[in-house]
Design brief:
binds magnesium ion, binds adenosine-5'-diphosphate, Rossmann fold, globular, 7 helices, seven-stranded mixed beta sheet, alpha/beta
């Protein structure tokens, strides 16, 4: 899925001042493959991810998926579009504590109208893919941090989204576990031929991705691909 942002601007209104976090950005993300978003804390990476995923609406400008102007949809229509096209993975997994791994992963499918048995078997397929075939009935509290994040990945991918948005998905994991989880995401992205956009502070990971986008203070953006740099 080709994502295109055009003249995208996001301002937040605080008590006494206006903060421009995303400032008139125009950029075309690659149709497939992987994009790293890097940049210092507070430069608007999460804000950009929320706009890209239609979780939030821009102050001005557009977010397009192919020919669909997602940013112009009503919030209900955006939610439906998101459910069909986007998988989110956050730093903190947001799993439902009272449901098993299998149920957490199956839930998005059930919400899309799949039968319970169909959803459960697809959830088991995904949990096996992320290496958790022996943890299907465990509650999140019975899983390690890395295992919980794998469940979150399985949940984000179970509906086969065309776009995977991951905001510091391994930010609270130790280095070894983080690198396993990152590799898993890259492998699944390649297998599913989706677009993976991942916010990361890991420069080694960023270098292994197709495109690197750096958010700069003041809401500008710089992208690199094959050593070329463009400022937007
Ligand atoms: N809902 C909000 N209201 C007001 N300011 C916000 C809001 N969300 C984020 N900000 C501010 O916008 C800036 C960018 O935040 P964020 O996108 O979370 O940055 P990053 O993910 O790069 O650390 C920060 O200065 C933050 O305080
Ligand atoms: Mg952030």
């Amino acid at each position: 899925m080709r994502i295109h942002i055009e003249n995208l601007t996001k301002r937040y209104q605080d008590a006494d001042r206006e903060l421009t976090v995303i400032n008139n950005l125009t950029f075309e993300f690659p149709e497939r493959g992987s994009v790293a978003i890097i940049g210092r804390s507070g430069t608007g990476k999460s804000t950009l991810m929320h706009l890209l995923g239609g979780l939030d609406a821009p102050s001005s400008g557009t977010v397009k998926y192919g020919d669909v102007v997602v940013s112009a949809l009503s919030s209900d229509a955006r939610a439906a579009f998101r459910g069909q096209n986007v998988g989110f993975i956050f730093q903190f997994h947001h799993l439902l504590p009272e449901f098993s791994a299998r149920e957490n992963v199956a839930l998005p499918l059930i919400m899309h109208g799949a039968s319970e048995s169909e959803a459960a078997s697809r959830a088991e397929e995904l949990l096996t893919k992320v290496g958790l075939s022996h943890r299907m009935s465990h509650l999140p509290s019975q899983l390690s941090g890395g295992e919980q994040q794998r469940v979150a990945i399985a949940r984000a991918l179970v509906a086969r989204p065309k776009v995977i948005l991951a905001d510091e998905p391994t930010g609270n994991l130790d280095i070894v576990t983080a690198s396993e989880v990152q590799q898993l995401l890259l492998d699944i992205n390649r297998e599913y031929q989706s677009t993976l956009i991942i916010v990361t502070h890991n420069h080694e990971l960023a270098r292994s991705m197709d495109v690197v986008v750096e958010m700069l203070p003041g809401g500008a953006l710089m992208s690199r691909q094959n050593g070329q740099a463009t400022v937007g």
